[in-house]
Amino acid sequence: MTKRKLSELITDPQSGQLSASRLCLLVLILGYLPVLAGLEAVGVKITIWAHLTVIVGSVCGVYGINTGLRVWRGKVYHDKEGE
User: Fold this and answer.
1) Which domain holds residue 54?
2) Per the domain annotation, does 80 fall within a domain?
3) SS3 for 49?
4) In this structure, are residues 54 and 24 in contact, taking their beta carbons and an 8 Å threshold?
């Protein structure tokens, strides 16, 4: 069994690049769940549609940021026809 690094929470260990799915899970676990628990504790009721909106928005946001960073760094991969 290999020893894991803390950076592997947001990067793919094989390629060493940012992993949008790992980052998304981290955002949802460390951001969304504590906020949800705090709102429930003060009595704010949140509907299922609000939950879905936050989750989908978080996932789209992480993938958008990941894509934006790739474009900014110049690591966008084009197919042969699109060049």
Assistant:
1) 17-73
2) no
3) helix
4) no
Global confidence as pTM? 0.49
63 within some domain = yes
Q: Would residue 39 count as lying in a domain?
A: yes
Divide the 83 residues of the chain into consecutive groups of 10 and give the mean pLDDT of each group.
69 73 78 84 86 81 78 66 51
Q: Which of 6, 33, 11, 31 is nearest to 22 (CA)?
A: 11
Amino acid at 83: E
Give the number of domains in the chain.
1
Separation of first and last alpha carbons in the chain: 43
- Answer yes or no: is 42 within a domain: yes
